[in-house]
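> tool_call: predict_assembly(chains=two)
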Amino acid sequence: MAVKAAGRAASRSRSASPRPEPPGEPAPAPELIQLLTPEGERSEHPDYPLDLSADEIKSLYRDLVLVRRIDYEAIALQRQGELGIWASLLGQEAAQIGSGRALGPRDMAFPTYREHGVAWCRGLDPAKLLELYRGVSHGGWDPKAHNFHLYAIVIGGHVLHATGYAMGIQRDGALGEDGEAAIAYFGDGATSQGDVNEAFIWASVANAPVVFFCQNNQWAISEPPDRQTRIPLYLRARGFGFPGLRVDGNDVFACLAVTRKALQAAREGQGPTLIEAYTYRMGAHTTTDDPTRYRLSAELESWKLKDPIERVKQYLIRSGMAKEEFFAGVSAESDEVGARIRKACLEMPDPDPLSMFDNIYAEPNALLDDERAQLAAYLSSFADDDSAQAGQGGAR
Amino acid sequence: MTAPQQPTLTLSKALNEGLRKALENDPKVLIMGEDVGKLGGVFRVTDGLQKDFGEDRVIDTPLAESGIVGTAIGLALRGYRPVCEIQFDGFVYPAFDQIVSQLAKMSYRSLGKLHLPVVVRIPFGGGIGAVEHHSESPEVLFVHTAGLRVVACGGAADAYAMIQQAINSDDPVIFFEPKRRYWDKASVDLAGGLAAALPLHKARVLAAGTDLTVLCYGPMVRTCLETAAAAGEDGRSVEVIDLRSLSPLDFATIFASVRKTGRCVVVHEAPVTAGLGAEIAARVTQECFYHLEAPVLRVGGWSVPYPPSRIEEHYLPDLDRVLDAVDRSFGY
């Protein structure tokens, strides 16, 4: 291990393009908006007052625990061969639940493939997420029923869709105190994509009601943020002409408060905001990834001390809002949810092969009708002997 | 004063009238692109539309093609029917991901719960003495992509209805316009209405003939009609079909013609290699094999990047090259 680490350091120092500090005045140390410390102590921020009842806090805690349990179950299902792949949200629960619970029912969310916590907040059955990762569908839930768009696999492309959708909100006259907004989720890696930068420009020029919610989880597969940027990501917003801020992405209270405020500003016609939720991807990029090849376990250990769930639990205990039976109840419920989605996954039927020809177009297409018939005839050519059921053997 | 119901219009003006009609008929129709507002587009196809329909419906966009198509998708998800203008064929590639991975696949990915009625207009083809990236024929890239409909208008007479039909489609449509024919004029039926128009995905027999079928689209339509006239002087009866729809192709019309004539030449500006002619030749060979008197021949651009304009006449199919293919077909 020591040899490997030394080799890595050496290759770093041989870099052909050393990166000096950005020119000009050194940027002030980034302010991290935080309302709940890693130790579970409540703090106040003048711009983000937050008044939550005990029930609301317990509800947030329940969300955090359940989505972590869903994630855990999905990883297990992948390891057992029931899912092709899974992208874990481990460590990002607070960023997703905080922002997800800030959304109003008419706001529209545009997720990446890791937004299982936001999906949960939008009332989407987690089993629908498994369909995608099992290879049963490419998503297939009804985005309009949940105001939760399909997962985006291509990095960054959907951020333009959120922006265009927000331009539609403007044209529908749906702004105002009880207006609508769109939110686009993406990661630190996506900030290098042209589409994300184009979306920033579009939203700024149009003053579109969209919130850009960037979960900086420190790793774009194997690349740290210094491969994407030389300044804190939230500062980029200034160059595009709208506000940007950095929030403790492991603090569900702060994520809720800043997203609420940004969404309301968008709804009221004040345009976009970039929120950089500073968090950590505690697991692998996906189940196919091996993070031991590119990061040290000490880093993971340091972030474990900032766990998004543990701090809420400590706060609930210290403030006397919740007793052991509450935590035991949430734990039992999480096991029930885990068992339920496991059952749903195992019982999921494969789609009919002929369904691959469906829904490609809204309107009829003779070429696809012809090819569907070809495959049907080919498949039926295997069915005419021993396995043919009565009434199905007549095709030939 | 009443405007004539069948005026003689340029292709550019016919498209402009079609877009105007669509904007009038449906408040959800939007036009978006670079310089489509005050300037009216570099080919004036959107001339005067922003003045009459406002900046919220005829949108001068930032100079970013991926953003044009990407935000159009978002607007379509919100219930709008955006018509995007890509200024020149060679500028569509920054939007390629948005078209191929996003626009084309949304219906499929959502199991039919979402449809994207987006039109992407692309002036295409050469022959205008332009600098590089302004004369390309990328249509087959989109024909190869499931989920898109791809059409090309050949002239003013068809364009007025075709652009409206494309906008009315609930599927994404890539709409190619032959830029060197923008100023060609024809009589346009402004009063006929869409119900009387030929369906968008039907080919049109422009010149009936009995000896050989020429299949073409876009800028090659005029070239092939002139070829048919020249061949007629040699006593050969050439049928010219404007394919109009490149995806899906109207094979019923194609096969019926080739079974009648027994000879087929496909003409396009795009390179012959893996061009639309290859697909048509394979299908015609399979479906019309016993009717063929000669192999299906193809006339198209060479397999080179589009050349500098001083030699583009040697790249582009013209009357003589199409006529040469006709002669070769009769040589079998």
